[in-house]
Description:
Layout: E1 22-26, H1 29-39, E2 46-50, H2 61-67, E3 74-75, H3 83-100, E4 105-109, H4 113-124, E5 129-134, H5 144-155, E6 158-161, H6 164-172, E7 180-182, H7 187-194, H8 198-208, E8 216-219, H9 223-226, H10 229-244, E9 249-252, H11 255-264, H12 267-271, E10 274-276, H13 281-290, E11 293-296, H14 299-308, E12 312-315, H15 322-325, E13 329-332, H16 337-347, H17 349-357, H18 368-383
Parallel strand pairs: 1-2, 1-4, 2-3, 4-5, 5-6, 6-7, 8-9, 8-11, 9-10, 11-12, 12-13
Helix pairs in contact: 1-18, 3-4, 4-5, 7-14, 8-13, 10-11, 10-16
Amino acid sequence: MSETACASPGRDRGNSSFEGSIAFVLGTRPEIVKLAPVARQFPENARVAYTGQHYDPALSDVFFAECGMRRPDALLDVGGRSRGAQIGRATDALDALFARRRPAAVVVQGDTNATLAGALAANAHGIPLVHVEAGLRSFDRAMPEEHNRVMVDHLADLLCAATVGNVANLLAENIDAERIVQTGNTVVEAVHRHLPGPEKRTKLLADHGVESGRFVLATIHRPENTDDDTVLGTVLGELARIADAGRPVLFPMHPRCRAAAQRAGHAELLARLLVTDPVGYGDFLALAAESALIVSDSGGVQEEVTVLARPLVVVRRSTERPEALAHFATLVEPGPEIGHTARALLADVETVRTQLAGRPSPFGTDQAGALIAAATRAMLTDRA
Length: 384
């Protein structure tokens, strides 16, 4: 077994002890992408506990290798369970892990079930907790992630906020200013690092049968869009109508969306789209950069388009990333507005892209990973 091979569920291997380490707790592919730039700053003592919230290999294994993230030292295997069961099982396993091998600090990112579990386990043992991407707020209590991120922010000892707005959200909740540092978002570094060059992008376009600037890239995976058969049918129907109007829609299909579409009998709608399996992170960035327009309900894509300078239609009720809405993204609820907004942008997409090309990302530069690592070291020095 190699040094970075996965351990058995819920246990760390003896030669990869978490004792005194910087422990990264994560469970989804966006966390792999966004924590890799931070973990690389700790080449000697980073350790990874992976909850397996994204248990499909297409959504996890390939991302560790592609993003240069250390493979898990502890695999907790909580995927496929309800939200409460995921949080409970992961917290219990992490509690036991940290009791045996106490890390120097625990680092979590964003607002997933793994994030909350890592925060609760760290708090239970009095281990310093670092929250990467702190301060995001949708102010939508129907969103499970909103509850996760608020609780983690109030537990964290170091809150690494990407934007001025994120800092303001934290201060408005009376979180101590000395616990907050504005770092930018590691997504900027991730995009710069993983965006393929022209040769690979040309090959990808040929492989998928689309032309640069002539297709729409779409991803749908959030429960609000997939768990209700009628809502999913509406979203897929709008994408199909965009395709029918002469803009092919390339649709890398998330396992949750695929299962929901099969359950609801939406085969006819999918047949009008260019459906593919999920793609790797670099491939997705390449396709996004070559697309005319992106339609997605992903939070990470809202950030990535600000680096790629591409227009985005966000299919959601609310967003915790209002910074993207200023210039790069338009928020629409599931319904005819998806098609209306997409067609309006596509009508003069070259002008739109030219305007976006001159705008910097509101999520900072590619220094976030180094800034987060420096703030973590400073916190630990102060506590020594």
